[in-house]
Every structure is written in structure tokens, then in C-alpha cells.
Specification:
α1 runs antiparallel to α2. The chain is mostly helical. The chain is elongated and about 65 Å long. Keywords: Membrane, Transmembrane, Transmembrane helix.
């Protein structure tokens, strides 16, 4: 399975940014805030795991030689 590095990086950055924004915002319903932050934290951890998997796959794949013409 090929993991799209750019998509994983973008999703990870967005989840971090939104997590910080929600964490610094006052909510009237704290339960909703905690559930939203928990979901974003899980998304962030999943993206980090996919990034680590992608890096390991890249390290194990044979390197293609670049030819200069």
C-alpha cells in the first residue's frame, strides 16, 4: 500500500493547528470540547503512525538510480 506523504503531512498539520485553536477557545459545553479534542488527538496520532510506516517503507524499498543525460 502506498501512503501519500503530502496528504498525511497536511492532515497532521491541520489537526495540530485545530487542536491548539480548540484548546485555547472557551466552550460553554466542556464535554463537547473534550470529545472534539480527543478525536483530533486520535487523528494526530494516526497520522504520526502513518508517517512512521511510510518512512519505514521508504527505507526498505530499493533505491532507484538516477541517471544523468
Amino acid at each position: 500500500m502506498k501512503i501519500n506523504k503530502d496528504l498525511v503531512d497536511a492532515t497532521m498539520m491541520l489537526s495540530f493547528i485545530i487542536l491548539v485553536l480548540i484548546g485555547t477557545t472557551d466552550f460553554s459545553n466542556l464535554l463537547l470540547k473534550e470529545i472534539t479534542m480527543g478525536g483530533l488527538a486520535l487523528l494526530s496520532v494516526a497520522m504520526i503512525a502513518l508517517r512512521v510506516i511510510q518512512m519505514r517503507q521508504e527505507a526498505n524499498s530499493p533505491k532507484q538510480e538516477e541517471y544523468e543525460y
